[in-house]
Design a protein that fits this description.
Length: 86
């Protein structure tokens, strides 16, 4: 493929980005009432994935209790800061 053809394909692929940005902003405005619940679900899923990966790995190396307790303490600290700082 020639350099100019590659350049123009790159330009064409970038032209949809502003359109998608406007559509994304519109979607956020429309879905704003659901945003806290969606973000809470995403945060819970992330915590689950991390803990699900760390605990079994720590069990193999003999640090299962340490990983479990530090995960619990980290969660409590995170929730305390969230409630305390708003």
């Amino acid at each position: 493929m020639s350099t100019w053809k590659s350049f123009w394909y790159g330009q064409l692929s970038g032209m949809v980005e502003p359109i998608a940005g406007v559509l994304g902003a519109l979607a956020v405005v429309l879905a704003e009432p659901l945003l806290p619940y969606a973000l809470a679900f995403a945060a819970g899923a992330m915590v689950y994935v991390v803990v699900d990966d760390i605990i079994p790995e720590a069990q193999v190396s003999g640090n299962g209790k340490l990983a479990s307790w530090t995960s619990i303490v980290g969660f409590v600290v995170m929730m305390s800061l969230d409630v305390g700082l708003g």
